TrEMBL record:
All copies of domain DDE Tnp4, residue ranges: 9-63
Protein name: Nuclease HARBI1
Superkingdom as given in the UniProt entry: Eukaryota
Gene Ontology MF, one: metal ion binding
Cofactors (names): a divalent metal cation
InterPro entries named in the record: HARBI1_dom
Chain's gene name: HARBI1_10
Keywords from the UniProt entry: Metal-binding
Statement: the UniProt record of this protein carries the keyword Metal-binding: yes
């Protein structure tokens, strides 16, 4: 989902704000994950199947570390700049879904 390029309704403005907050949390988590596992910080030079296995393995190891109390210091990570205002080419189905989300949750 992308944000609205030029929000004109209150629901669209609220959606954009929620979208930006969620994206920031996700981007920070990616930063933590990449800091913990440097192998996922660079492009993979392997088959798609191997890359998927590596991603799943690092996710499992990350969650295991968290469950054992091994937390990364998130405060040392730089804040990600919000780039959600970029409105890429979209399919009509995606626009309809986004509009339905706004109608159901942000109006």
């Amino acid at each position: 989902m992308t944000s609205f390029l030029n929000p004109v309704r209150a629901g669209q403005v609220r959606y954009n704000a929620a979208h930006a907050r969620a994206r920031n949390v996700i981007e920070r988590q990616y930063g933590v994950w990449k800091k913990r596992f440097s192998c996922i910080d660079t492009p993979f030079r392997c088959s798609l199947e191997t890359a998927q296995t590596v991603i799943v393995a690092t996710a499992v190891l990350h969650n295991l570390a968290l469950s054992l109390g091994d937390y990364e210091d998130e405060d040392s990570l730089p804040l990600q700049q919000d780039e959600t205002m970029v409105n890429h080419s979209q399919e009509h189905g995606g626009i309809a879904k986004r509009n339905a989300i706004v109608a159901n949750f942000f109006n």
